[in-house]
Amino acid sequence: MSQISRGFVWSGIERFSVQGISFILSIIIARIVSPSSYGLIVMIQVFLSFSQIFIDGGFANALIQKKERTETDYCTVFLFNLLVAIVLYGVLFFTAPFIAKFYNEPQLVSLTRVVSLNLIISSLSIVQRARLTIALDFKTQTKAGLLAVIISGTCGIICAYSGMEVWALVVQGIVSQIIISISLMLFSKWTPRLQFSIDSFKNMFSYGSKLMANNLITSLYINLANLIIGKRYSSADLAYYNRGFTLSQFPSTNIAEVMNRIIFPVLARLQDDRQELVAAYTKYLHLSNYIILPLMMLLIVLAHPLIEVLLTEKWLPAVPYIQMFSLNFMLYATAQQSGNPVAAIGHSGILLKYQFVKRAVSFVLLIFTVGISVTAVCWGVFASSVFEVVINMYVLKKDVDVSYRKQIIPQIDVISSVCILGVCVYIWTLLVTNVYLQLFVGCILGGVVYWATTYLFNMKEKEMIQQLYINAVKRIKRK
């Protein structure tokens, strides 16, 4: 098995074992903890997400993109990450009373000061994770992630059952970050030194700063929505909105992240061969959409029975948000991956330039919709994503010479299959009223229909699935 294939397999195992277990544990905790408690954590997360981007500063991707890295490069990035994390923790510690006053939630003073410790803890392992990613070593990251999620999830459940409410979520987050940081430091077998180079910093900053600015703009947009909803509406409303966002993004972002963690290093290696670069990009985008789109369609059609079965009726107000965000995240793979070829050839400045255009439109839509309703905000997010995809396709055509036809036509078979799947499962939900039958039979029906259309449209992924099946059978026979 090639290094890329092993990397893909272990990246997938790492994301879906860790995130899958984390998802299950979060469902258990959500059934115990009230939506308003979740809303308080989301309020704090607005500031943490923004701070985390400053801490990384785009240097992790700069290390990955760089052809030759030295020990000095790694040490410089490590010290920069740690210093910025300490400074930002101090800022959040002293501004905690103002955050609490803004939301009119006194609990946020102590919550902010404790939860913000994650910034310092996480900064200790950013370089270690980048080193492992460069080596396509996701097996090690899987071990660290699994250890962290199992221990922290268990602690969270115990605390939730003990009646700690919001503090159960705090304990879970802190324990998780401590374990994963310590594990990555131990497993990576790399020890930082007090070595900082101005030249190294400048070299990586010229690339990383553009990505950081790009991420800052996106984070500002996403978190500004949470900020305004938390201020204008109740913490429960924010919890429903955030639950709809996080649940719908779970399959799309995790699958896209698995692909991206392999694709970007691969594309970076192909940066001098445009033809191979474009071929690799097209191949992996189709595979991403083949996996992501049917899952999003199932979430749209089965959102109501899913929430009632998993989270109980107290979370049903989140159903329309799940459906709208699922539609939105159908565009996620294209929106994210279409920037990879441009970034791989070192043109991150172009991405930043157009990011200002995209986010200007996003902010206008947010300002226009937030005063109407939370539902209107969701539709504004979808409109923004459509605009982002259009712009990214334009940049890809202009900078890497990938025509619109090459970007769109290969995806038609997947889109057609997903539409057929959606219609069939929706008809099933109209025929039965039992939520368990709607959910479980609906998922099976969707899988059967999608498998049939894969053959009907002769999609190239069927060979990959057949090969996986043959390999699995061989392993079973050998045992």
Q: Could you characterize the architecture of this molecule?
A:
This protein is mostly helical and 479 residues long. The chain has a domain at 1-209. It contains 21 helices and no strands. The model has no long low-confidence stretch (mean pLDDT 80).
What distinguishing features does this structure have?
single chain, 479 residues, mainly alpha, 21 helices
N- and C-termini, Cα separation: 20 Å
Rg over CA atoms: 22 Å
Largest sheet: none
Choose one word for the global shape. globular
Q: Beta-strand percentage? A: under 5%
Give a quick precis of the structure.
Helix content is 85%, strand content 0%. With 479 residues, the protein is mainly alpha-helical.
